[in-house]
Amino acid sequence: MGFLVFREIKALLFMTLRSFKLCEINRGIVSASDVEFEEGSESELLQKQVKSDEEAFELYNEYAFKFSFGVRKGKTRCRVKDGSICMRQMVCWRTGFKNVNNVGHKSYSKVDYRTGCRAYVQFHVDEDDVYTLVAHVMGHNHAMVPLHKRHYIRSHRLVRSEQLAFISNLKRSGIPVADVIRVMRKEVGGSPNLGFIASDAYNALAGEKVKSIDFSDSNQLIKFFTQSWIIVGIWNNHHTNNIMFGCAFLLNEKTDSFVWLFDSFVRSMGGKKPITMITDQCAAMGATLKVVLPSVNHRLCTWHIGKNSKKNIPDLRAQDDIVDVFNTVLKYSDTIAEFEFYWQRDFEKLFDAIQCPYNRKVAIAAYYLKEEADFRWSQHKETLMTRYDFDWKAFGGDMKKKFYPNFLRRQKATEFDELKQGDMTVDQYYKNL
Question: Which residues partner with 424 through β-bridges?
Answer without folding.
Answer: 421
